[in-house]
Amino acid sequence: MRFLNLFLALAALVVAVSAWDKLDHEIFDLVSAIEGAEGKGTSFYSWLDVSPSATTSEIAKAYRKKSMVLHPDKNQGVRNAHDRFSRLGVVSKILRDPETRKRYDFFYKNGVPRWRGTGYYYARFRPGLGTVFVFLTIVTSGVQYLIQKLNYKRDLERVEWIVQQAKSAAWGAKMIPGEGQRKVKVNLGGQTRYDADGNVIGSRSVDMVVEGNDVFMVDSDGSLLPVNSSTALEPSVVRTWFLALMGRLYTKVVKRDDTGTSAEDQTSTEDFEGEDGEGSGTDSAPGSSNGTHTPRESKKGPRVATSMAGGKRRKTVRKR
């Protein structure tokens, strides 16, 4: 029963809002302007100093008397004198017309509604381009952050599944932990399929190492990369598109050295400069016996075991 009453009240509100026309909106604006200039609670009648039951002739007489007081010629230098005089004319016009006065009397007795419809507020507080941009930025960044959370949850489930697969392959069906390291192969492609010749198709296996409760993925260079909850990329507001864009601009524009080269570009050229011999890996390092330079040790952070995506870094040659 309570839900039905609430539904009927909302339906009545929707009908009332949809019934407000241009005249109603004009009355709303005029009421707000008069209360703001003349004081809270000031009505059309109290401003003209007439009773709500005043006749049309009484309202006209009160208007002529009030207009002589508020005329801009007699209020030179007074702030908003023209606005007050203009409002007085509109008030007099509304109260002297039976139809418009009847409409005003409805709001005078029942009060001006707080919610006046989306069309009313949009027409009077129309957002600018900046407001729209800020709104869209907040909305799209929020949606992107929500997607990050969903992806993070999915990645955690994926990592947990891979860990269980590795432990099951290392410990057997009874899942009894063994001692030492055990190297196993884990199929990341789900169910293994076979062709007519018995060859495995549609599978994607990786080498993994299980040591106690720790699981590692074997990289191409033989190094062990831990696979656990920290492998999944946690959601971050900083990685939403707008803040990420601002961070990149800050790095490229603000964090520049004295030569005008950004830190990112400088790192790239330092790693790969010297195709003609200057600074290349073929130079003799001090103290080396074979005349070759020892390659710089690569630093690898945690990788997501489920992505397994790789690529070659493009070489950048500094122009002379």
Automatic annotation (TrEMBL):
Gene3D superfamilies: DnaJ domain. CDD domains: DnaJ (cd06257). It is found in: Endomembrane system. Residues 1-19 form the signal peptide. Residues 257-320 are annotated as: Disordered. The chain crosses the membrane at residues 128-147. Residues 311-320 have a biased composition (Basic residues). InterPro entries: DnaJ_domain, DnaJ_domain_protein, J_dom_sf. It is a single-pass membrane protein. Residues 43-108 form the J domain. GO terms for cellular component: endomembrane system. This is J domain-containing protein. The lineage of its organism: Eukaryota, Fungi, Dikarya, Basidiomycota, Agaricomycotina.
